[in-house]
Amino acid sequence: MRRTTERHPSDGTLRRLVDEPAGVADADREHVAGCPACLSGLAAAQRDATAAAAALGTGGPAGTGTDAAWHRLSAAVAAGRPRPAAAPRRRWALRRPLVAGLGVVVVLAGGGVAAAGDWLQVFRTEQVAPVTVTQADLVALPDLTAYGEVEVLEEPDVREVPDAAAAEAATGLSVPEVAELPRGVTGEPSYQAGGRISAVFTFSAEQAAQAAAEAGEQLPPPPPGLDGGQFRLTAGPGVAAVWPSANGVPALVVARAGAPTGESSGIPFATARDYLLSLPGIPEDLAAQLRGFGGAGTTLPLPVPAGLATSEPADVDGAPATVLTSRDGLVAGVVWVEDGVVTAVAGSLGADEVLAVARGLDG
User: Fold this and answer.
1) CB count, 10 Å around CB of 80?
2) Cβ burial, residue 174 (10 Å; 0-12/13-18/19+)
3) Which H, E and C letters describe the chain, residue by residue?
4) Strand 127-133 versus strand 299-305 pairing type
5) How far is the C-alpha of 142 from the C-alpha of 24, rounded, in Å?
6) How sure is the predictor about 256, in pLDDT bands with cuts at 50, 70 and 90?
7) 97: closest CA among 175, 24, 174?
8) What's the distance, Cα to Cα, between the start and end of the chain in Å?
9) Which keywords belong to this entry (predicted)?
């Protein structure tokens, strides 16, 4: 039993941390972040939520996209249950820890100096690199709305399309052709297409100070120009080909999407990075990993859940790649970036098998 004589947040509170973390009291968030028993309960709540979403085909707690597909595939394999075809998920869950955390990560990750109209490009994806994220990190990491306002400009509208030609017509991206299917993967794939995702984050010193005060901290004075400064995050469009297996779990997924980019309304990258990394609530181990990326602004952090998956470097036709493998070895994936496009191959396969598929793609 998780309960002891010490007061722990209820199971309902743990589930709310998965679904709507902004609605959980700061005291409960802080308790869970430092309590091994509650972190274990939170992990169970996340598994339950993902397994239920996989069974219903409504998407998991990570939202939409390649990261969500990996999350749902892993959960479905672990649960050993059929998964119907996923229905489009229309809401971009910015307030959930992983999605909101990714937004913070992109803002902090790196910057360039290419002008884009009235915006200054501060991030462009040229490669991916793993970032180890613990359950405690996800609980402690504040969502973007703790620091300001988030306005979603475009939602992806992920939908099934008849064939590869329709996917390309809808997105402008070709679906890579698999030269040879791995053993156990048969038949024709289904195809999905989604539009671009974009959002603008406006930093508010007042909201950040309130969040710091609620955490018992004092907000460092923001540098000139940062209060009211804006960051625009964009990714997509995207396409995917999905091969089912006999039990309904995707046997193979090949996905391609426009790589994420970030722009600012004029705040220099170094100014924003150094300040945001100093804010209360950013886990120090995560901040240290992000500092290690330097200031080139070309590396997209790829969150790897500690204890659940491993990562290792590889290459796909000369492009640097990252291979992810679940601890039980049942699911693997490889992700790489080339010419501003992220490509991912994943499935209920071994690491060598997904690498073989990736290196044999045509188009």
Assistant:
1) 10
2) middle
3) CCCCCCCCCCHHHHHHHHHCHHHCCHHHHHHHHCCHHHHHHHHHHHHHHHHHHHHHCCCCCCCCCHHHHHHHHHHHHHHCCCCCCCCCCCCCCCCCHHHHHHHHHHHHHCCCCCEECCEEEEEECCEEEEEEECHHHHHHCCCHHHCEEEEEEECCCCEEECCHHHHHHHHCCCCCEECCCCCCCCCCCEEEEECCEEEEEEECHHHHHHHHHHCCCCCCCCCCCCCCCEEEEEECCEEEEEEECCCCCEEEEEEEEECCEEEECCCCHHHHHHHHHCCCCCCHHHHHHHHCCCCCCCEEEEEEECCCEEEEEEEECCEEEEEEEECCCCCEEEEEEECCEEEEEEECCCHHHHHHHHHCEEC
4) parallel
5) 12
6) very high
7) 24
8) 53
9) Membrane, Transmembrane, Transmembrane helix
Total-model pTM: 0.67
For the stretch 167-203, pLDDT in tens is: 999 999 999 999 999 998 999 999 999 999 999 999 9
* CA–centroid distance for 19 within its chain: 15
Give the tens place of pLDDT for each residue, 294-329: 655 677 778 888 888 899 999 999 999 999 999 888
Which residue type, as a one-letter code, is found at position 161?
A: V
Strand partners, 310: 325
Compute the distance between CA of residue 113 and CA of residue 217 in angstroms, rounded to an integer: 33
Are the beta carbons of 314 and 130 closer than 8 angstroms? no
- Answer whether 303's CB lies under 8 Å from 284's CB: no
- Could you tell me if 141 and 315 are in contact, meaning their C-beta atoms sit under 8 angstroms apart? no
Whole-angstrom CA distances from 44 to 67, 97, 123, 194, 331 are 19, 16, 35, 31, 19
Residues, the chain: 363
Residue identified by tokens 């672990």 is: 78
Place of tokens 């892993």: 74
Residue 309: strand pairing partners: 326
Q: Which two tokens stand for residue 54?
A: 């996989």
